[in-house]
């Protein structure tokens, strides 16, 4: 099955294109305090190294604008666009645009009304800055909520559509929309409705999804359903975790749907009563040795002859354990049969050759 993506309008976020036929981009938001220079610089570098394509930074006050300006002056965002995340104070948005950010995220529900939004839009237009209209279930405009009798889904959709009209009336089109709810079902329902009503690119996310395990599952379900329907142009997986984990989760969601190829994929069996080796430990070792490998490789570590040879054959490099020995597969053929306790070392050697080649 191939996913047919909805063709949205394409917008420019710095040099990155979002929407249209551009690949679905993966983004994250920094968690370090922007005033802690060493921490924020380290986090930005880690994000770039793990393939983050858009970095968003919270800008809660004037000092944060100055810090962000310094980071930009130091060339940290030469290769990746930066978005300033603004709430409550439209002047911060103006200052960030002045400082040279590629995009700003505003939540029109709390930025202070149409007039202030118009000022921000005007500045964005002049400076070729992209805007994300960030609707969030936790901060919907109260008037819209009241009008929709408190129904969150309908209020979020109306809020998104109203803000699209505001942007268009101001002659501004370089924007994308997000409408994140913490409920997976609301998120799916809201994005589906917005996608039917507009062609502007959509930034997908389940908001406040939770810690690593729970949040990854919620995001995979919510984003997975939408992406499989062709909806979504850029994604952020919100996790109460290090930001690089959000990026990894984002790529895993996209690659599991065949929407992006990114680095190593590991196929491993869940183990069962037939397993005669410590497979979880071996998979951990394989996972550790793939750290930092950017090549698109499929690796398989399989516990026995039931499904092992089939999966290992299908991988670029695979192990299938047999009764006494383990078979090592390279590009579909067995290249060695080795003692079980030596197979990880042999696997490592072959992986090195494969990556070098
Ligand atoms: S491959 Fe073999 S060991 Fe692994 S789960 Fe399947 S039957 Fe069990």
Topology:
Layout: E1 11-13, E2 16-18, E3 25-29, H1 37-49, E4 54-58, H2 62-73, E5 82-86, H3 90-99, E6 103-106, H4 114-126, E7 130-136, H5 142-147, H6 152-169, E8 175-180, H7 184-197, E9 203-204, H8 212-228, E10 234-236, H9 243-256, E11 264-268, H10 279-289, E12 297-302, H11 308-314, E13 317-321, E14 325-330, E15 333-339, H12 343-356
Parallel strand pairs: 3-4, 3-10, 4-5, 5-6, 6-7, 7-8, 9-10, 11-12, 12-13
Antiparallel strand pairs: 1-2, 13-14, 14-15
Helix pairs in contact: 2-3, 3-4, 6-7, 7-8, 8-9
The chain binds iron/sulfur cluster.
Question: How many helices in DSSP terms?
Answer: 12
Cofactors and ligands present? iron/sulfur cluster
What spatial order of strands do you see in the largest sheet?
A: 8-7-6-5-4-3-10-9
Strand content: 15-25%
Query: What is the radius of gyration computed over CA atoms, rounded to a whole number of angstroms?
Result: 23 Å
Let me know the CATH homologous superfamily of the largest domain: Dihydropteroate synthase-like
Distance between the termini: 31 Å
- How would the global form be characterised? elongated
CATH class category of the largest domain? Alpha Beta
The structural domain count equals 2
Low-confidence stretches: none
The chain-level mean pLDDT equals 94
CATH topology of the largest domain: TIM Barrel
Major sheet details: 8 strands, parallel
Describe this structure in words.
The protein is built from 12 helices and 15 strands. It has 357 residues and is an alpha/beta fold. An 8-stranded parallel beta sheet has the order 8-7-6-5-4-3-10-9. A 5-stranded mixed beta sheet has the order 11-12-13-14-15, with helices on both faces. Strand 14 and strand 15 (333-339) form a beta hairpin. The chain is elongated, with a radius of gyration of 23 Å. The two termini are 31 Å apart. The model has no long low-confidence stretch (mean pLDDT 94). Iron/sulfur cluster binds at residues 269-272, 274-275, 302-304, 306-308.
């Amino acid at each position: 099955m191939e996913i047919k993506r909805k063709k949205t309008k394409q917008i420019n976020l710095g040099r990155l294109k979002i929407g249209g036929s551009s690949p679905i981009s993966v983004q994250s938001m920094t968690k370090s305090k922007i005033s802690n220079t060493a921490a924020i610089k380290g986090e930005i570098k880690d994000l770039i190294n793990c393939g983050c394509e858009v970095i968003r930074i919270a800008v809660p006050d004037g000092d944060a604008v100055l810090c962000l300006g310094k980071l930009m002056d130091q060339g940290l965002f030469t290769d990746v666009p930066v978005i300033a995340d603004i709430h409550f104070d439209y002047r911060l948005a103006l200052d960030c645009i002045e400082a040279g950010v590629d995009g700003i995220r505003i939540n029109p529900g709390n930025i202070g009304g149409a007039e202030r939004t118009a000022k921000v839009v005007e500045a964005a237009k002049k400076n070729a800055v992209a805007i994300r209209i960030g609707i969030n279930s936790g901060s919907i405009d109260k008037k819209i909520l009241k009008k929709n009798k408190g129904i969150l889904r309908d209020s979020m959709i109306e809020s998104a559509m109203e803000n699209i009209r505001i942007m268009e009336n101001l002659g501004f089109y370089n924007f994308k929309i997000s409408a994140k709810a913490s409920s997976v079902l609301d998120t799916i329902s809201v994005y589906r409705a917005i996608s039917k009503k507009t062609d502007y690119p959509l930034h997908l996310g389940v908001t406040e999804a939770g810690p690593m395990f729970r949040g990854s599952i919620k995001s995979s379900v919510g984003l997975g359903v939408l992406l499989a329907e062709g909806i979504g142009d850029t994604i952020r997986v919100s996790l109460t975790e290090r930001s690089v984990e959000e990026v990894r989760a984002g790529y895993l969601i996209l690659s599991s749907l065949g929407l992006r190829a990114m680095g190593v994929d590991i196929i491993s069996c869940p183990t069962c009563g037939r397993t005669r080796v410590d497979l979880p430990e071996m998979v951990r070792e394989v996972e550790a040795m793939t750290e930092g490998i950017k090549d698109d490789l499929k690796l398989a570590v399989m516990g026995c002859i039931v499904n092992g040879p089939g999966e290992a054959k299908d991988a670029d490099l695979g192990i299938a354990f047999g009764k006494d020995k383990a078979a090592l597969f390279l590009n579909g053929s067995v290249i060695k049969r080795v003692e079980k306790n030596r197979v990880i070392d042999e696997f490592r050697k072959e992986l090195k050759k494969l990556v070098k080649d």
